Every structure is written in structure tokens, then in C-alpha cells.
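Progress narrative, work stream C.
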Amino acid sequence: MPVSPVLLALLAAISLSACVVYPAHGPYVAGVVTVAPPPPQVEVVGVPPTPGYVWIGGYWNWAGGRHVWVNGYWAAPRPGFYWVPNAWVHVRGGWRMRAGHWARR
């Protein structure tokens, strides 16, 4: 005896109504990392490739569910600006990355 398409749809709806989806509570919740960043790594800065270049220091980024070190690099200066480094800011519930940027003097 064949089953009607309406009955199949009704059975599917009933079985799916019991599914509950919970938000993932791991080390990253709503833009906040709940794991403190490690201390900064020591970097060998060396000599700039061109006089006047600015060192952009390395920092811990959050990628793939963990902190990952991003190496520093030399950058051409921007007249009238200075570099504000990347920084982790402690906020309620964890840590949030404040991205590095050029700021006007």
C-alpha cells in the first residue's frame, strides 16, 4: 500500500519539529575570544629596507579557533600619521582584537 505524499510531508514535519539548535559556546562568542592571548613573541627587527620605514610589530591573531602569531614587517611611512599597533582589549566575557591602524598626528 503506497504512502501518500501528504502523510510523508506530515511525518517529516513532526520529526523535524523536535530538532533544537543551540548556539556554539566555545572559545569565540559574539566577537569575543574567551581565551587570553599569549605574551607577544620576541621579534628581530633588524635594519629597515629603506631609511624612514616604520616597523609594524607582530601580534596574535585569532584564526581557526586558536591564537596564531602574525609576524611584523617594515612599511613605508605615511606623512602626518603614526602607527597604532594591534592590541587585545579585555572586555566583559573575554578579549576583543583592536586592529592596528594609521592615525593622524
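Work stream C, second folded protein:
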Amino acid sequence: MLQLLYSLFHFIHFIQPLIIPICFFSAWALIIIVAWSMWTAARDSLSTAQQMHQIPCTGCQYFTNDYHLKCTVRPSVANTEEAINCMDYQPKTNPLLY
């Protein structure tokens, strides 16, 4: 038991000069990984937002703005990515009528 403690103390004494550089590089690696993941999340969110802004449903005359029936022509496609090139899209001509 005493020899095990002595060898453990000797190992700690041997590795002590290496602890500071290992912790330094580990901390910076962790900071870089977190920053990189935040950057990729922001980039992906921006590209998704740009794609969602291409959905023309809110400017269509068939859009009802009701959560029960969003679109009278294609209710399953309304406000989804499939509606970006909707063949039934008709722009609102007079917004006061709707």
C-alpha cells in the first residue's frame, strides 16, 4: 500500500509540469469548438430563414390566414417548402376584399 502511494506521488510529481500546457490547450480547444458550433448553427438558421421567406402563401388570394384551413386550393401544401413554386399561386389584387 505504501509503495502504491509512493509511486502515485512520483507519477504526480513527474506529470506536474505538463498539466498547465495540457489544460491551456484543452481550454482553447473547447472554446474553439463551441464558437465553431455556434457559427454553423447561425449559418444554418440563416439559410433556413432565407428559404422560408421564399414561401409566397401570405400574398396569395387563396390564403385564408386561418389555422383550420390555410389555403382553399392546396391546404396540405400551404406554408411549406413545397409551396415555393405553387402552380395555383394568384397574387392578391385588392387586399381590402380579403
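Residues 56-98 form one domain. No further action is required on this item.
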